[in-house]
Amino acid sequence: MKKLAAILACVLVLSMMLTACGGTGASGTSEGKQLVVQLGPDPETLDPALNSAIDGANMILFAFDTLLGMDEDLNVVPALAESWEESEDGMTWTFHLRDGLKWSDGSDLTAEDFVYSWQRMADPDTAAPYAETVLGMVKNFSEISTGNMDPSELGVSAPDAQTFVVELGQPCTYFDKIASFVASSPVQQESVEANGDAWAVDPSTYVSSGAFMMTEWVPGSHITFTKNPNYWDADSIKLDSIKCLLIEDMNAAYSAYETGEALMIKSVPTEEIPSLEGREDFYVEPLLGTYYISLQTQKEPFNNRDVREALSLAIDRDYVANTVMQGTYSPAGNLIGPGITDYDGSQFMDNSNGGEPYISTDPADFEANLEKAKQLLADAGYPNGEGFPVIEYLVNDQGYHKALAEYLQKAWGELGITVEVKTAEWQSVTATRRAGDFDTARNGWVFDYNDPSSMFDLFYTTNGNNDGKYSNAEYDEQMDISRTTTDVEERFAALHKAEDIIMADAGMIPVAFYNDYYLQSDKITGSWHSPYGYWYFQYADIAE
After folding, report:
1. Hey, where are the domains in the chain?
2. Cα three-residue angle 313-318-320, rounded to 5 degrees
3. Which of 163, 318, 494, 498 has the most neighbouring CB atoms within 10 Å?
4. What is the mean pLDDT of residues 454-469?
5. Given phi > 0 = left and psi -120 to 50 = alpha, else beta, which region is 385?
6. Residues 376-381: contacts with CB under 8 Å, at least 24 apart
7. Burial (Cβ within 10 Å: 0-12, 13-18, ≥19) of residue 390
8. Cβ distance 135 to 122 under 8 Å?
9. With 70 as the cut, is the pLDDT of residue 28 above it?
10. pLDDT score for 286
11. Using one digit for the tens of pLDDT, what is the confidence trace for 91-123?
12. In angstroms, rounded to a whole number, what is the distance separating the alpha carbons of residues 439 and 452?
C-alpha cells in the first residue's frame, strides 16, 4: 500500500505511451460499443481485498465475479458458483463452481484460487480492511488475525477443483450475502505474488474473473474495462468496453455529461441541483447508508465522551440535510437508518431507542441541544471553548463535503472551538483516515448487505475499517453475542444494545442518511442501481 503512489506514477507514464484516444459516451467508436461513465476519482486500489471505498468496489465489480451475486431485486443468485448448500447446523457452506471457469488470461480458475484468496485476506500482513467483516465468522480467523495461527489454518478447503468448502467457527445466517460481497472475490495467486501491489494498478497484470478486464489505467484521466472473452457468461455481455472517467471536479464531470462525453455521472455539482429537479435523467434514489463524522477517539480531547457528545449536539441536522445538502439527504439521529430490516422484517430503526431518534433532528429542539453541548464542553474542562485546541477536519472537495466542513466551522465555532479544514484528494483521505492520522474527518458508510452488522462491524475494536479507533468493551461484548448466538431474536437484541452503547458513547457523529443523486442518459438500457451504491452496467446496452 505504501508503494501505491509510486506505482501509479509509473503506470501514468506507461499508459500515456500506450493509450489511444477514447470515444464518446454515445458509442460508435473505434473501441466498438463503449459506455463512458463517471463513478469517482482515482481509486486508492482495485485490489478486492484492500479496497474500502464504494467507487473502487463498483469498478472491481466490472472486472471480478464473486461466488454468488445479487440481482436487481437484491436476491442472492448464482455467479462463479452455480449452486451451494448450507449444512443442517449452519456451520459448513459448500459452493459448487461452474464448469470451465477461466481467468481473463485464459488460465483455469479453480476452488484453490478461493482458498488462496481467503487465506491471503485473513493474513494480518495483508492488512485487508474488510478481513474481519468477511472472515470473522470463519473457523480459526480470530487466531490468525492476532498472529497466533498460520493463515493456512483458515477454515477453507478445496476437496476438488470445483468445490469450495467454508467451515465456520460461529453461525452466520447471512453468509450467502458475504459470498456475494466484492471483497470476497478470488484473485490470481501467480499475478499477485509476482507483482506485489503493482498487480492491481497495471492492466497487464490485473488478471480478473468478471465480465470485463482492465485494459488501460491513466491516473487522473480514465480506466477502461474491455469485454472479457473468457468470462463464463460472455455471450450475454453486450458492451465492448466501459470507460470510467476519473474526475474529482464535479463541474468537469457535469460538463462531460452535458457534452455527451459521458452517459452517466455520479458527481453532480450541488449548485446545479435546483435546475435539475424534474429532469427525467436526474435521479435521487435511496441508499442504505449513513454519512457520519469520525473522531480520533484515542487522541485528546476526543478521548473524552463529553467532548464527543458536545460536538455531536452542536450540529443542526435538519439544517444540514435540507439546506447545506439541499434536501438530497435526510437528517440522521441514529446510526442505522431506514431500509435495514430487523429480525421480524420490520425496520431496525423503528425498534431502536423506543422508536425515537437518539438525537432529536427536530429544528425546534436544536437550541436545547446546543445549550447541552455548551454545558458538556464546560464539564469536560473547556468552558466556552477555553483551552480547547485548534482542531482539523479532514475532507475531500466533492459533493457536499466542503460545504459541510464550512458549516462545521460555524457550528463548532458556537462552542468556542476553532476548526481548520484540511482538503485532500480522495485517495489521500481514505489512506489517512484508515491510519488514524487525523482529528476529525468526514466519513460515511453504505451497507454491503442488508444486515445491521455491516455498519456495526466498523466500530469493533479490531476492525480494519475502524478509522476513529473506537474501542468499547461493552460494545465489543454485544457484537460478540450477535456473532455467536444461534437465536435470531437474541442476535438482533444484541445489535440494538450495541447501537445504544455507541450512541450514548458518541463513538462517531451521525449526520445524515444517504441518497444517491446522479445523471444518467436514457440511452443506457439494461442497467440498474443498487441501494448498496453500485451501478450494474455489466449487462447494459446503449440504444442507437
Report:
1. 1-64+195-281+521-544, 66-184, 286-516
2. 85
3. 498
4. 95
5. left
6. 376/306, 376/307, 376/309, 376/310, 376/313, 377/306, 377/307, 377/310, 377/415, 377/416, 379/306, 380/301, 380/304, 380/306, 380/307, 380/310
7. exposed
8. yes
9. no
10. 87
11. 999 999 999 999 999 999 999 999 999 999 999
12. 27
pLDDT band at 31 (very low <50, low <70, confident <90, very high): low
Grid coordinates standing for 434? 484508515
For residue 536, list its beta bridge partners. Answer: 528
263 CA to centre of own chain: 23
- Asked if residue 131 lies in contact with residue 151, where contact means CB atoms within 8 angstroms, the answer is no
% residues pLDDT > 70 (the chain) = 94
Q: How confident is the model at residue 25 (pLDDT cuts 50, 70, 90)?
A: low
For 404-424, letters b (16+ CB in 10 Å) and e give bbebbeebbeebebebebbee
pLDDT in tens, 303-346: 999 999 999 999 999 999 999 999 999 999 999 999 999 999 99
Q: What is the dihedral of CA 113, 117, 119, 123, to 10 degrees?
A: 150
HSE, CB side, 13 Å, CA atoms: give it for residue 97: 26
| 377: nearest Cα among 411, 420, 334 | 411
Q: Which helix (H) or strand (E) holds 226?
A: strand 222-227
Domain 66-184, architecture per CATH: Alpha-Beta Complex (3.90)
Tell me which amino acid residue 225 is.
Answer: F
**Cis peptide leading into 357, omega within 30 of 0?**
no
Q: How far is CA 416 from the centre of its chain?
A: 34
- Torsion sign, CA atoms 4, 5, 9, 12: positive
- pLDDT (tens digit, 9 = 90+) per residue, 506-520? 999 999 999 999 999
**SS3 label, residue 132:** helix
Q: Quick check: 141 and 154 in contact, CB under 8 A?
A: yes
Q: What is the mean pLDDT of residues 349-374?
A: 97
CATH number corresponding to 1-64+195-281+521-544: 3.40.190.10
Domain range 286-516, CATH architecture: Roll (3.10)
Place of cell 465489543: 476
CB contact at 8 A, 359 and 372 = no
Question: Count H helices, E strands: the chain?
Answer: 17, 21
**pLDDT of amino acid 11:** 41
Total residues found in the chain within this entry: 544
Does this chain's domain 1-64+195-281+521-544 share its CATH topology with 286-516?
A: no
Those residues whose C-beta lies under 8 Å from the C-beta of residue 419, and which sit 6 or more positions away, are 390, 391, 392, 393, 405, 408, 409, 412, 413, 440
pTM of the model: 0.83
Task: Give me the pLDDT at residue 16, please.
Answer: 35
Q: Which residues pair with 295 in a beta bridge?
A: 440
Give yes or no for a contact between 240 and 535, defined as CB atoms under 8 angstroms apart.
no
